[in-house]
User: Fold CFA47 protein from Baryphthengus martii.
Amino acid sequence: VRLSNPSSKPLRYNTLLVGRDAEDFSLSKGNTVTLGPKKQASINVEFTSRFLRPAEAMLLLISKSVGGIHGVTLTFSLKSEVNYIEP
Assistant:
């Protein structure tokens, strides 16, 4: 997930994975994301398959105040698809 901060103030988000298969998804860099002013950042979402069926979850980015500045809450739908299985 690629994020950008067009403002002149830093933004901070707490992340939360929710939904039926949320435990199958994880974030490699922890549960907090900070974006500097006029900067971009990537959030790497990792998936570990337990079943052949598609897995679904939601990634929530909940704004946390930095110097009185709040961003909006962001929501991303996550869906996996298993295309190949190694024995």
In short: The beta strands are 2-4, 11-18, 25-27, 32-35, 40-42, 45-47, 56-64, 74-79. The radius of gyration is 15 Å.
